[in-house]
Amino acid sequence: MRNKSVETLLQGLDILIADGNAYMRRLTRSMLMNLGAKSVKEAADGLAALETIREDDPDVVLLDWDMPVLNGMEVMRIVRSPGVFPRPNIPIIMLTGRAHHSAVTAAMRAGVHEFLIKPTSPKALRERLMSIVFKPRPMMQLGELYVPKPRRAKAEAKAART
To answer: Which pLDDT tens digit goes with each residue over 7-29?
Structure first.
C-alpha cells in the first residue's frame, strides 16, 4: 500500500485517544498527526471515553487499560454490550503498559481488535490502524463474549486459496 493512500485514509478517520496520562495522550496524538490523522479527540478517563464514543461517534478508539473512574476493561464491558451500548462494533486498539500474556488474552476476550504495548512506535500504531481499516473483522457473539471474528490461521487461508 502506498503511503499517500494510507495518509489519505488516516485523514478521514475520527480517532479517540482514551488515556489517563496527559503525556501519553499528547505523544499518541503527535504520532497520529504525523501519520496524517486530522481528527483526534482525547478522553482522560473511562467515563469521558464512553461519553465521547456516544456523542462524537469516532471511527477508532485507542484505549488504555489503566484509567481513572472506569478502567479500560470496564469500558470494554460496557461498549461490547449489543442492545445496550449504541456502538458495540466500534474498532478498539488497547494501548497499554501491561505486557504480560494474561493481559493480552483478557483484552482480546473483552473484544479489542488490536493490542499495543506502551511505549509504541509510529510504525506499530500505523500497522494496527491499517489492520482495522483494510482488514476489518466483523463482531460476533461467542458465548457470553462479543468479540471481533478471529483471524483465519495462515494454513487455513492458504488452503482456501488453493
So the answer is: 677 788 999 999 999 999 999 99
Segment 109-140, tens digit of pLDDT: 999 999 999 989 999 999 999 999 888 999 99
- DSSP character for 66? S
Quick one: CA torsion of 7, 113, 76, 45, rounded to 10 degrees?
A: -30
Report the DSSP pairing between strands 139-142 and 114-117.
unpaired
CATH fold group of domain 3-161: Rossmann fold (3.40.50)
Domain extent listing, the chain: 3-161
What is the pTM for the complete model shown?
0.89
- Please report how the helices 72-79 and 101-110 are oriented relative to each other, as an axis angle in degrees rounded to 10: 20
Q: Per the structure block, which three cell numbers stand in for 22?
A: 496527559
